Amino acid sequence: MATPVRSPTGSPGTSPVVSPAVADALAAGTAVVALESTILAHGLPAPRNRAAADELEAEVRATGAVPATIAVFDGVPHVGLTAGQLDRICSEPVEKLSVRDLGVAAGLGLSGATTVAATARLAALVGVEVFATGGLGGVHRGARETWDVSADLPALAVTPVLTVCSGVKSILDVGATLEVLETSSVPVLGYRTDRFPGFYRRDSGFPVPWRVESPDRAARIWAAHGTGSGMVLARPVPEQDELDEALHDRLLAEGLALVAERGITGKDVTPALLEHFHSASGGASLDTNVALVRANARLAAQVAVALSSPTSGTRR
Ligand code: PSU
Ligand code: MN
C-alpha cells in the first residue's frame, strides 16, 4: 500500500496516480476535463453505467479535451482511468467516497467511487480546473431536523474547480442549496438560461444569479474568479430529453416517502432516491440522466478548450 501523505490542500490521503494521457495533457497545457465516478457506481445501474462511462469520455475527446475520470483503487486515487478500472467501478460493489473518506480509503486500502466533493478535490490537487457531472449534492429536504447537507457544498466553497452540472435534483431543498452556495462565495452561472436547472427538469423553480451565453464567456469568468472557491456552470437538460413533469412529480413524491418509510439515512439517501426514479420510470429517468451528463461533459470540454487556448488569453 502507498504511504499516506499530507496533501497540499490539507486533506489526509494518498497522492493521486495520474494516467499518462492526463499527465501529458497537463504538461502540454492541453484541455483536461475531470469526470465523476459516483454517478457511475451509485447513480446509474449496470450495464448502462459502463456504456455511459465511455460515452462521457468520448464527448470530451470529440470536443478536443482529455477526459480524466477519477476513482480510488486499493486506497490510491487515480486521475484518468484505464478500461479495466472503469469496468471495476461499473461492476464491483465499491464504496462511495466523499472528501472525508479519502484518508480512510488510503488507510484501509479501499476501492471506491468519488463524489462531486472528492472528485473536485482530487482534480484540483493535480491541476485539473474543469469538472463535469450530473447534479450536485445539496441541502436535503427536512435538513432542519436531519442536518443532511451534502459535503459537496463545503467542498465547492474551498476547491478551485469549475463544476458543470444540471443544477440539483428536486429531491433536495433547492432554495436552501442556492442559499448555501451564496454563503460559500460560489458563483452560479446559468448556461443560456435564467432559471436554475432541476436536473430531470429544465427549471427548478428558482432563478439563477447570472447568465452566460457561450463557453468562452464562462471561461473568462472562471479565469477572473480566482478567490479559491469553486464555481458552478449550470446547464439545463436538453429540451428533447427533459422528463415529463407529471411523471417527475409522482416519482419524487414516491421516492421521498420510500426513503422516510425505510429509515434510509446518510450517504445512502441519494442512491436510494435515484434507484427509485430509474426503476419506477421504466428507464425514462435513466435516458434523461445520461443525456444531461453527456451534454455537461461536452460543455465542460468546450470551456476547458477555451481556457487552454493560447489566443483566448483566459488561462491563468
Ligand atoms: N446528484 C445526482 N446524482 C448523483 C449524485 C448527486 O443527481 O449521482 C451523487 C454525486 O456523486 C454527489 C453525491 O456528489 O451523489 C452526493 O451525495 P450525498 O447527498 O450523500 O452527499
Ligand atoms: Mn447526506
UniProtKB/TrEMBL annotation:
Its EC number is 4.2.1.70. InterPro entries: Indigdn_synthA-like, PsuG. The keyword Lyase applies. It catalyses: D-ribose 5-phosphate + uracil = psi-UMP + H2O. SUPFAM superfamilies: Indigoidine synthase A-like. Binds 1 Mn(2+) ion per subunit. Keywords: Glycosidase, Hydrolase, Lyase, Manganese, Metal-binding. Its cofactor is Mn(2+). The keyword ATP-binding does not apply. Substrate binds at K96, V116, S150, A151, D152. Mn(2+) binds at D148. The active site is at E36, K169. One of its GO terms (molecular function) is hydrolase activity, acting on glycosyl bonds. HAMAP family: PsiMP_glycosidase. Belongs to the pseudouridine-5'-phosphate glycosidase family. Homotrimer. PANTHER family: CARBOHYDRATE KINASE PFKB DOMAIN-CONTAINING PROTEIN, ZGC:136858. Catalyzes the reversible cleavage of pseudouridine 5'-phosphate (PsiMP) to ribose 5-phosphate and uracil. Functions biologically in the cleavage direction, as part of a pseudouridine degradation pathway. This is Pseudouridine-5'-phosphate glycosidase.
